[in-house]
Fold:
Amino acid sequence: MLPINLALVIGGFAATIWVVALADQHGGDFAWFLLLTIPTTILGIIFLGGHFTLQPNEARVLILFGAYQGSVRDSGFFWANPFLTKLKISLRTRNMETQKLKVNDKRGNPIEIAAVVVWRIQDSAQATFDVNRYEEYVKIQSETAVRHLANSYAYDHGEEGEITLRSGVDDVSVALCRELQDRVGKAGVVVEEARLTHLAYAPEIASAMLRRQQAEAIIAARQKIVHGAVSMVQMALEDLAANKVVELDNERKAAMVSNLLVVLCGEGEVTPIVNAGTLYT
Structure:
């Protein structure tokens, strides 16, 4: 269409000048030709407005007097009816990070949570006609999905085998992506990835939860220390008995176990006391 449009414009303009020149030389006998040359030039100029280009991952939605006529998704140089309204939409992948939301988890604890969503437009017609401002629609639905996700899972310390926001990162991401796709699918949007970027207790309970975590860490460490100490005491008694180093009665075994546990489980250095007498004096 580009050569045809250029021929109409240039040919019509040249023909108009030629007709005007003939009319000046030979009178008004050739003036009626202007009814052909001038409309031809105008028509060529109007047709030039139908040309448009598309870059990779771009689309044009074509509308004629309010009626949807189709979409162009291939990159290149195109021509369409100049009276069509051509709405350009980007099909590129986009990132969107939600703001930090303060919500309650499954157990009612206030937490702060945020997520990043990777999405793109798959159906340009749906994105244009089914929702109002699809970017704002995706943003609001993303925040709604994150709130619902936080209400569906505990922050941590769930029941045995329960998925939590803190421990089940991959499972939570899959659930968030699936829920987001259900919400934004009507807008012609495809969610490629969704992951949590921020997860913390709310400031009003953060210090209390930190103390709880520290206490749990200390208890877990003590359990490992005691378990290791008992194993070492048991190994020492078995080796003494197997090598017949010394024969110990129950009372002496109890004293030895007590001394070894104090040495192994104590936090500070142990000062030995030498007993110059016997165990019973």
